[in-house]
């Protein structure tokens, strides 16, 4: 029974980390949209900012998860980065209604999310 409560507690914490990560993502993307509207940022700058947001948010989620885990922090950070990426891909597939417009750089985004999440876990 004790082990079941531990797993449930970890699952709830991971869910809270993901929720916080996506709330932070939404806030940063809203800020980016405002900057785009206000200053007319070029497409290349917007793409770099979006990738920067992914890196910063998964780093923060990995940091929180690693801090809480105590042991094997890098694995918890990696798990947060991969979970963030999976949710990102699922939402993209739902919104785009298929694979055709998901993006050509999804492998790069996967490695960025997983790596920055793992780095966040290691730093914590």
Instruction: Please give the alpha-carbon distance between the first and last residues.
Output: 30 Å
Low-confidence runs: none
Major sheet characteristics: none
Output the number of helix runs.
Answer: 4
Helix content: over 70%
Query: What fraction of the residues are assigned to beta strands by DSSP?
Result: under 5%
The total domain count is: 1
Overall geometric form: elongated
Q: What structural class should be given to the helix and strand makeup? A: mainly alpha
Report the mean per-residue pLDDT as an integer. Answer: 89
Task: Tally the beta strands.
Answer: 0
Order of helices and strands: HHHH
Question: Over all CA atoms, what is the radius of gyration?
Answer: 16 Å
């Amino acid at each position: 029974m004790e082990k079941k409560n531990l797993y449930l507690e970890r699952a709830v914490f991971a869910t809270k980390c993901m929720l916080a990560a996506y709330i932070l993502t939404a806030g940063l993307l809203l800020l980016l949209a405002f900057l785009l509207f206000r200053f007319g940022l070029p497409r290349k700058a917007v793409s770099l900012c979006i990738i920067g947001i992914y890196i910063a948010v998964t780093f923060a989620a990995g940091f929180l998860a690693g801090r809480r885990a105590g042991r094997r922090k890098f694995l918890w950070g990696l798990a947060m980065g991969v979970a963030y990426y999976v949710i990102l891909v699922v939402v993209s597939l739902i919104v785009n209604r298929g694979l055709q417009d998901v993006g050509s750089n999804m492998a790069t985004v996967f490695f960025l999310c997983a790596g920055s999440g793992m780095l966040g876990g290691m730093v914590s």
